[in-house]
Putative membrane protein YccC
Amino acid sequence: MTWSKALKDTVRTGLTVERTKLQPLVAVRGAAGVAIVIGVVLWLATPTLAVSSAFGAFASALVTFQRSWRPRPVLALAVAAGLAVSTFVGYMAAADPLVFGVLLAVWTLLAGMAWAVGPVSGMVATQTVAVMLITVTLPTSVAGALLHAGIIVCAGVVQAALIVVFPVRPWGLQRDALADALAAEADYARRLRHDPVARFDAQPLMDARSAAELTPRQARNRPRQLGGPRGVAERLRPVLASLADPVVGAPAEGPERDHVRDLLAAAGTVLDAVARSIRWGKPVRLPPEAMAVLEGAESGSMLTGPARRSALRLIALLADAVEATDEPVKEARPANGEPKGAKAPKKSGEKEQYRHLLRPTVPRLVPVGLRALRREARWSSAIGRHAVRVAGVSLAGYALGSALPLGHGYWAPMTSVMVMRPDFGQTYSRGVARFVGTLVGVFVGGLVMALAHPGPWVCAALAVVCIALMYLLMRTGYSVASACIAAYVVFLLGIAGEGWSQTVEERVILTLLGGLLAMAAYALFPAWETPKLRDRLADWLAANGRYSLAVLDAFAHPADRKPRRVREALLDARAARQAWEDAVARAQREPVRHRGISRNAERGAEAALATMGRVTMLMEAHIPDRDAAPSKEAEEFAAALRAALPDAAAAVRERRDLDWSGPLDAYGAWQARVGEEGVAVRAAELLVDALDELAGVLSRGPGGRNRAARR
């Protein structure tokens, strides 16, 4: 992609306003917290303290809108504590520009590295830098600095208290994540009716797993509906794929295929009903038509062999999903309108206690964060380079802002820090959105100030209105949020008695300067994803290989099979695939030429590795019981694959041709001994086909599709 096209795409992305679901009650609650803090401080203290407290209340509420699975009060308190520390430390160094510059560079470097812990941690750390730059310009003493920090903490406490006293849809994020996973399974089942090898996006399952990680306190209060269905959803996917696949499941045409289509449609209906029940906390309502199909398949089915086993397993898992909601099952009215009686699943005397994934508490998160920082503290890391880049830009912006004959010079480095992200696309699109939004916001705010000349209390009310609009509309686009924030700042400075005309002019000029610095820094010191695509592809191949080996070992030695090993290998393969897809999405927006892998080869390799993962999943659905006979052929095939994988991953990185002769020979010997009977040998055929396709698309020879590697 050329620079001109990349810039056009980032401008279009930055100025896009999306239609999205709004959260008015949460927005009103956050704005109420800001109003309480500003009103009380303005009444009891000075306008300067009111402005300082407003930033603390604003940031403490802002973090509760982020996609985090931690309790919202904890997030608000953590942000307030971080803002208080950054404010006090900044005040201590503000008297000496040189000392403050060093502090700013070090603090910003650490804030940039915080992205290694996660996006929410990175956003919170960025907020601490922004508030440090703003509040240290307000005149005060050491005692006043402590007072400012204390008021910011109190602002966070107010927001946390409002969240506790006025909860809005408790466990809503967790319910939505689990419901989205089940709805994705339902959609997958319906697509399999027409495309037996349809692709499945595992992101909803990954989100549901993240949402299921709980602290001990959360686990004690979790609704029962959120306990069991996630595990069922994980086990459903391979069963659905195995039932629909024409190689290991029902034939591609005929009565058995029609019966499978009916089963898949009924499964989609049941999963949708369970998803609605979990999302809204209501009983499951199952259409009688779907129940009739499932009951008929259980009592007597025309399916045979692996297809019948998959069908029975599917019915059992659907029953588990319905029962795990712990609500009475209501049978909906049939299509002809005849009423049906209610039906409830049988329950034991006590509720089943589902285990949960452990999420570390905030104190225990410290060593986890330190390990993440140490892992990313290297020159080749995108996050490490981002930290160095944002530290240098913030220092340069602070120096330029101080040197220019304008007030509020901190707006330049603050803009740079707020728009910069570890990847090119987000940095440039946010820079454009920030400038355009600021231009609109300061124009509207300045116009109101010029026409109405409001006093401090009216300015405070207008600031609260602006922040309420920002909370409400922030998910529609960064340009909209920037416009609301810009007007919010104009009215806050109006509380402190700042002249609106000077504020508007300075804000526009310094915001433009900060955005240009951020964009120039990424162009001069980039962290491109395009050159790393082969490494991501090799990581995905290695992870897929470990997953295949874990499943093949279960066929080779059923008595020694380790379900946990298979599960961990599957999670690693999912994570590697997600890392590849994220890298490809970022690389497509970069103005960098392909290095070693063309777009055609990229798409072909992705399809081959996706097929490899799907075939392994089909085998996983038919792992034999522990009392089954060992398979010497599966053991030999696994040994050949295990020997070939390290060199294959290295060949992908080093742009060499892949050699799968060992697995191909082992499969040939396996097929010669047992023929085409058995799920494992048929899946092994699909597996070697996928490996051969991968070698073909990455080949540098005349028949290969990787022309970029031949240049």
Q: What stands out?
A: DSSP finds 28 helices and four strands in the chain.
